What does this fold into?
Amino acid sequence: MKVLLTGANGYIGKRLLYLLVERNLEVVCCVRDATRFNHSLSDHQQVSVIEVDFLKEETLNHIPEDIDAAYYLMHAMSMSGGNFAEKETQMALNFKRISDKRNLKHVIYLGGIANDKELSPHLESRLQTEKILSKGNYNFTSLRAGIIVGSGSGSFEIIRDLVEKLPVMIAPKWLRTKSQPIAVKNILEILDRSLADEYLYNKTFDIAGPDTMSYKEMLLRFAEVRGLKRWILSVPVLSPRLSSYWLYFVTSTSYNLASNLVDSMKTEVIARENELLEHLNIDLISYPDAVKRAFSRIKQNQLISSWKDAMSSETINKRFEDLVEVPSFGCFKDHQQVSVVDEKHVLDKIWSIGGDRGWYYGNWLWKIRGYLDKIVGGVGLRRGRTHPTEINSGDSLDFWRVIIADRSKKRLLLFAEMKLPGDAWLEFKIDKNQVLHQTATFRPKGLWGRLYWFSVLPFHGFVFKGMIRGITQKTNVELKTVIQ
It folds into this structure.
C-alpha cells in the first residue's frame, strides 16, 4: 500500500512516519520544502519526498497517481498574514480535488473535538475542513482529538512554561474549562491502526484521554508530577486580548498561536463515547503518566518533533534554497576569524550553541534582544533548541532558523526569524586551513534597516568578537576583525 503523509514535517507527521515504515508501507511524504525534511528515515527505501503546497494548485500534480490512502495532518492556525480559516478551507478544497483524481481508498483526518454549542474560530475551521474532506470520492474517517500531551507538543510546552516559571499564577477564568487531554502515544496508535480499517470508513470518532479535568487542574497535576507547589488564582478581568498577551510573554508560543489558543480554551473539549478504542485495542494513558513519559523522552534527548520547529510566516514565504546563498551586494557584514587548534572541540561547541548553553559571550545581551523581539511580536529566545548537541536543517534555534547544518563540511548557517527591518544570517565555517570564520550578514530594507544596523554596530564589536573567543577558548591565536 502506498500512503500519502501530508504534514510530514509536523509534530504528528514526523512521529507517525516511523510506525508506517514499521508496517512496511510505502510512504510519500508531502512537504512544502524538501530541503527542510531531515527525518532519520528520509533515505529509507520505503520513503519518498515530494514538494506540494496545498495553497498552490500548480504543485498538486506532484502527487503520484497510484496513492492508495492518505493522512490529512495539515492546519494553518499558527500562520499569520491573512485569515487562517480561509487558508484551511482552500487547502482542504485543493486536497479533495486532487484526491478525487487519484482514486484513493481511504483518507484519515485528524481534527479537534467540536461538541460544544459555541465553538472557537479554530474549532469551527477544523469542523469546516472535516465537512469539505468528507465529500470526496473516497472512504473518509475523521478523528477528533482532545489536547495532545507529549514531549514537544504545543500544549505540553505551554503548560510546562507556566508551571515551571510561575509559582503563583493570576489566571483568566477560562482555566475552569473542562478538557480531556490525550497522550501523543495514544494518538499515534489510533492513527496507525485506523488505516484501511473498513469499520472506520465514513465515520467520525472523538478520541480523548481517560481524565476529565479543568485547565487549572491540568496545571496543578502537572506541578505534582514535577514535585512543585503552585498556587493559581482565577480572575474574571482578563480579556481575551490580555489573556493572549499573558500566554505570549510567559510561554514560548507566538502571539498568533496564543490568541487562537485562548479562543479555543473557552470551549469545553469533552469526547462523546464510542467503541473505537475497544475496536482498535487501545489502552489509554492517564494524564500524569503522559506527563511522566514526556519528561522521560526529554531527559533521554529523544525529542523526535516539536511544535517550535514550525517556521515563522516570514520564513515560510522564503524557500530554503533562496536562503542558502548568503547575499553580498547591498549588505552589511561583521566577519571574525580565528585559527583553530582543536577542530572537533570547536565543532562540538558550534553544534551546541544557543538554548540552555547560550551564545558563549554576552548572554544577557542576547536575552535582552530576545525580550525586545517578544515586545514587538517576534519569537524571542524561548523556543530554545530541540536537542542539546544535534542540529538539523529546518530546526529552530532560539530566534534563528537552521538553514545548513553540515558537519562534514564544517558549516552551520542560521537565518534570523526575529523581527528585523531586513534579513540576517549568521554563519560558522572552518576552512581547509583550520581557520574558523564567523560571519554576521545583514541585508537592510530601506532607511530603517540601515539605521538599525548602525544603531547596533557598537555592540557587535565586542559581542561577536567575544562569541568567537568563547567558541574556541584560545588566547594565543590571531584574531582579525573585518567590518564592512
Q: What stands out?
A: The first helix runs from residue 11 to 22.
